[in-house]
Design brief:
There is one protein chain. Helix content is about 70%, strand content about 5%. It contains 12 helices and 2 strands, in the order ααααββαααααααα. The N and C termini lie far apart (about 40 Å).
């Protein structure tokens, strides 16, 4: 029973971070209908920013808000310079543009930082929290708590602010939103900024747990897409639930089968859900082709 509880808690903690990791991807898709294939590279950017802030003396978790706003700014600029003109073009154009961003970011990171692994190791990095016979890393607990707080803040931003209402209106019907005076271009830029900010924030929370290197974003891109499809395309609650599901699958399969089998396990579930319910667990039927549901 202790082992089961250990795996359960570990999976839920990891899944909370995965939920935030995927939140930006599903938000950007839900509003702009862009599938961002460079999402993982922005997670990588957040991890590198956290590493360098830590080198300057900042606690990695206290630096997380700085990383969020820095990545938000990068997202707004990226959307304005590279993606704005693709919104009316075929989706294949957007795919190639985001793939190009991914390749450039990976190559740039290798050029600037080489292929070396970097580690963020705060003084409490090896501390454990004991609950009876269960031992959990303190960094994982902090990351999960901050991820849930970040997810809640994004939810409140969308539900309680004027800008959030404009984003939700644009997601439901951009043409009607434009008619009532909502500046669609601004909404798209802010949405992409928030999405990239969430990716960078997830990177900041993951940096004290996993090494930082130029191609680390690939793994997180794959996880994000699995989470988004499992939870429901464009569904923010679905991103959190999908993250928890993937976290649990990864943890239990790594222990009971083998560490090498964890990706195969959640990709198998991913394929089954995709076949039986293409819109995901919380998605509305048809959203896989039409866009978001909020």
């Amino acid at each position: 029973m202790d082992i089961f509880l250990q795996l359960l808690l570990s999976g839920l903690l990891l899944g909370g971070v995965y939920g935030l990791l995927s939140l930006g991807l599903t938000l950007v898709f839900g509003v702009t209908r862009i599938v961002n294939f460079a999402h993982g590279e922005f997670v990588m950017l957040g991890m590198y920013l956290t590493y360098f802030l830590w080198q300057l003396g900042f606690d990695p978790y206290l630096a997380a808000p700085v990383v969020f706003f820095a990545c938000f700014a990068v997202g707004v600029v990226t959307q304005h310079l590279l993606l704005r003109k693709t919104l009316t073009m075929p989706h294949l154009v957007q795919v190639f543009v985001t793939l190009g961003i991914s390749v450039v970011m990976q190559a740039g990171a290798q050029l600037l930082f080489t292929s070396n692994f970097y580690f963020v190791r705060p003084s409490y990095g090896n501390a454990m929290v004991e609950i009876g016979n269960i031992r959990l890393p303190l960094t994982t607990i902090i990351a999960a708590v901050l991820a849930l707080i970040g997810t809640a803040l994004v939810h409140l931003f969308l539900k309680k602010t004027h800008t959030g209402a404009a984003i939700r209106a644009t997601a439901q019907d951009p043409y009607a939103a434009n008619v009532v005076g909502i500046e669609i271009k601004t909404v798209y830029a802010v949405t992409f900024g928030v999405g990239i900010g969430c990716a960078g924030l997830a990177g900041a929370l993951l940096a004290p747990i996993y090494p930082v290197y130029p191609t680390v974003g690939l793994a997180y891109s794959l996880i994000s897409f699995v989470v988004v499809v499992l939870g429901g395309l464009g569904s923010l609650p679905g991103a959190l639930i999908g993250g928890l599901v993937v976290g649990l699958l990864e943890t239990f399969s790594a222990y009971y089968i083998s560490p090498e089998a964890k990706e195969a396990t959640y990709f198998t579930i991913f394929i089954i859900v995709l076949l039986l319910r293409p819109a995901g667990l919380l998605g509305l039927r048809g959203s896989e082709t039409m866009g978001a549901n909020h």
